[in-house]
Design goal:
The chain is an alpha/beta fold and 336 residues long. It contains 12 helices and 16 strands. It is 39% helix and 17% strand. Bound molecules: magnesium ion.
Length: 336
Amino acid sequence: VYTYFLKISNIITHSSYIIQSSNKMRNLARFALSICRKLTTTAKLSWPKELLNSAETFVFDCDGVIWKGNSLITGADTALTYLRKQHKNIYFVTNNSTKSRGGYLSKFASLNVEAHPHEILSSSYAAALYLKGLGFNKNHRKVYVIGESGICEELACNGIAFIGGPADSDKVASFDHDIVIDREVGAVVVGLDRGINYYKIQYAQRCLNELGAHFVATNRDSVGHFSGEGLWAGGGSMVAAVAGCLEASAPPPTVVGKPSPFLLEHIMRVSGIGDPGRVVMVGDRLDTDILFGKNNGLQTLLTLSGVTTMQQLTSPSNHIHPTYYIDSIADLVPKE
Ligand SMILES: [Mg+2]
């Protein structure tokens, strides 16, 4: 039944281009489409202006939406420029913790895409914000980092002491010698770390099990588009390695990236946005981006330019349905 109505929805959507010269017919098609949307829960975004008129703020994921690795997704820059001309607020929320906000600003600049410091919210920044909220910038407790320079830069920027990170990437654990841990560690932050090793996992394990340190995860993404081609193991694989050291009854890590509401609450607070229904979350992952939007009452737009395929979206086993889907954010620019 789901597939049947989805097909009808798409036929009406495409028919609308042919009959759009007639206002009455167009309105009729829109009405039919809205009925189909209710039945199918997801429809292809065929009238971008309908979404543009109902939203004032767009929150974009980055990997698989704006770029893939170091390659800009075709037309993404044009779409962002168009939204700015329409006076829409723009934010970039990324779970990729390998860069700080400054690192992402440089990346946007290298791709010739306009972005401003207040618009960028990375999970590395979220980790620092969360720990700042716990007083780590004042209580002199340290953070052990399994992650890259992005997390370390954000912790330093927010006055939080840390150890580990890239500095421990070459260290080797030996069963002949205990690893001496710093007893002032009060939190372990785990994010994507291309230098993860057994030494870091053991250090984190002792901080969590012996010191009762807070366990903070930037995200639990299974995979990501970190290069132009193919998928790479995501931050979730590092989090799982550390979580595997804990008792089954231990509480799960605090996730500060998507789908946790932490960064959205920050956006709402600093920007003064009152109605989450006027915000659109645009992303390529169902279990983080779209879930993040749905959990927080946002409109959601899945782009098929990243990790999610049409087959996965329409699979009967998928229970996370965005408001709309689109091939690429380039299609946000109306063609008429
Ligand atoms: Mg993504």
